[in-house]
Amino acid sequence: MRIVNRCLWMGILLSLLIACGRGEADKTPQKQIAIIVSTLNNPWFVFLAETAREEAESRGYVARIFDSQNNTSLESDHFENAVALGYDAILLNATDSDGSVANARKAMEAGIPVFCMDRELNNPDAATSQIVSDSYSGCVELGGLFVRSLEKKGKYVELLGLVGDNNTWNRSKGFHHVVDHFPEIKMVAQQSADFDRNKAMEVLESILQAHPDVDAVFCGNDAMAMGAYQALVAAGKDKQIQVFGFDGSEDAVSSIQSGGLAATVMQFPQKIAETAVAFSGEYFEGKTSFPPKTLVDVELVTPANVSIYSSYGKE
């Protein structure tokens, strides 16, 4: 009887140990996602990064944001850390369309997928997939509004973003694709303000000294548009000179509502971030083929329709 009882207890103990071992084996580690962003000194990128982090965490992943401070070398350090720490995916908002290619390749060679958000790399093979706004088409539409607002004649200034960012040139090319067909609309100055509000204010103040009679300013993002508008207010020219932006930031939407900026183009960073996280999840589940580039639609925001928009999206 004692032998039977002893065997019974040993059997129960063995079953418990096996079940315990199975339980430990079933506890797969949480996937980790590194969100490497060009700069957190711009509210648009803060929104993009935070949205990506929240979406990743809602899916049960561990997510951490890294700020490259518009420095490709610092971005390289972030990539090296992400590889060394064994992150499972990287969501990249690149500092430079060319300069960031080598950084992305480091991760890809280490078997870590790279999903680009908003800023496109010039080498599509350097990333698993790229999710970007349709900047070119958005600025084609903005260019049409610009021409109509100036009644097909006048002088204007263009403030460019970072010269190493594809968005800078896609927006400029889309705009010029329309505006350059109207010979009586003349660009008197084109200068980079690095997507920065304070720099845009300083640059436009300097340009106005040489060209005080301009009719409009086209800016490659809303931060520059708001800086340009500040310069016009300081010069007492905000009622005479129209300012056009791109992004759909809270400041820009509010300014259009109050009669400040003439228009902007609304991007949808939430959709960009959510798509990048969703692609990461599909990769974790075994998917290996992704579209090289996904274009996210943008929308023109004017005084006529601004009531349906809020910062970086619709009401």
UniProtKB/TrEMBL annotation:
GO cellular component: cell envelope
Residue spans crossing the bilayer: none
A Pfam family recorded for this sequence: Peripla_BP_4
Residues covered by the Periplasmic binding protein domain: 33-287
Principal subcellular localisation of the protein: other
Protein keywords: Signal
Subcellular localization: Cell envelope
Family in the record: Belongs to the bacterial solute-binding protein 2 family.
Region forming the signal peptide: 1-25
Descriptive protein name: D-ribose ABC transporter substrate-binding protein
GO molecular function: carbohydrate binding
